[in-house]
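Dock zinc ion; give full complex structure.
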Amino acid sequence: MLKKTEKVKRDLQEEIRAVTTLKDAEQLKIKYLGRKGIIQDFMKLIPALPAEQRAEFGQQINALKAEAANFIEEAIGKLSREAIPKVNNEIFDITLPGKLPLTGKKHPLTQTIDDVKEVFARLGFDVVYGPEVELEYYNFEALNIPADHPSRTDFDTFYIKNDILLRSQTSTVQIRVMEKQKPPIRIIAPGKVYRPDTVDARHSFMFHQVEGLLVDEGVSFADLKEVLNQFIKTYFGKDVRMRFRPSFFPFTEPSAEVDISCSLCSGKGCSVCSYSGWVEILGAGMVDPHVFKAVHYDTEKYTGFAFGMGVERITMLKHGISDIRLFYENDIRFLSQF
Ligand SMILES: [Zn+2]
């Protein structure tokens, strides 16, 4: 028996010397030390031996097993160490361009809101926020929107129950601020609004608005025009022209819709501007005295203006985005362009 184990040891040493690859060394490990390997076969002989020989033979086998494991691990370790510099020399090419890690970015709508905040901060406006779940009073009544106005039906507003709804405009924040604060007031209120619109390329049941409000003594329409002019020139570029069209909103009088020259075709006419050269970007006007009465402001002393714009809309116009749904799909190919 001793001779047999000695022979196994010699065979193994010879075979190890001949091994040149890691794969062969692993094969050798299986051949000698595996569950069906040569050394395991010796173990199977033990029960058949006379009782007095079993202990000694067992020890020999264990010693052989330990030695074989040592030889093989040493060979594997040596071959692995040799393999590493090979990989470095042959495959690692320092002239290859590196892989840039994916970095996070602000969503394009967040970037627009940040830009808007920055422009108005320079003009002295504070940023305020209001609740998205709102009382009917703040969304309609206090804004001088009559009970029979079509926007108050549940075709145009999400009602939660009775007089509680999801706000359909950020103008609600105006009232909440004026209730707590006396003029002068200069605020913008960005946030989400909700309307039961069918989703298509231009509509979404949720979108973002920025509301602006300025109230003080002696505020005129000219002030409104200049504040919006400053914003438009900064956000869209100094060559962009602006025009006011008379309009109607329940909470402003007089009211206007504000257009800018189409930045995609420079006013020459394209499909985005319906070949008119102009695109509407916001609604604005002088605050209706009825609104001031709701918050107990002296309408003889104070005047003010308000404006509201869609964040998605101005972002789409600035970047030439044709489908509003792109903002909400979280497609990294779209988002990484901003
Ligand atoms: Zn155009």
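Observed: The pocket of zinc ion is lined by residues 262, 264-265, 269-270, 272-273 (CB under 6 Å).
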